[in-house]
Amino acid sequence: MHTTKDLAWVGGLLEGEASFMIQKGCPKIGLQMTDLDTMERVAAILGVPVGSYVRKPKGKATYLPVWHLGVHGTRAISWMMTLYQFLGQRRQAKIRSIIEEWRESRMMPRAPHGQRFMAVCHPDRPRAADMLCNSCYMKRRRLRLRLGATADQLPLVLP
To answer: What is the pTM for the complete model shown?
Structure first.
């Protein structure tokens, strides 16, 4: 378990150094810096590995390796919500817009290892595609093929 002091420290670091984004419906927190000890501490708190690459611009052979880490998907959303109170107004507004876009996205999010997301149509069944259980998805797919309609032209849950 992390202390409030750890969370505040990570929030302050991410406020100044990280990028919060959403790409193709997948939320992401990205961080890059040349200080390995700081990156290892952040990675330990966030529960992600640290990667590295060497940046070698033309004419400069003395540049340090750049360490990077990324938190993706539902884990990124949960960290955004956890650290929200420690961030400034601009970052909070960005996080609100990311969460709103993520909620409206039709992309099927990945659940953390060993967990499943449940279908919108039948909350007792696991999701297959388009937020539907397998039987409702196949029913909708057959209807769409029969009518020649696109996915957006049919209601999400059929009667």
So the answer is: 0.65
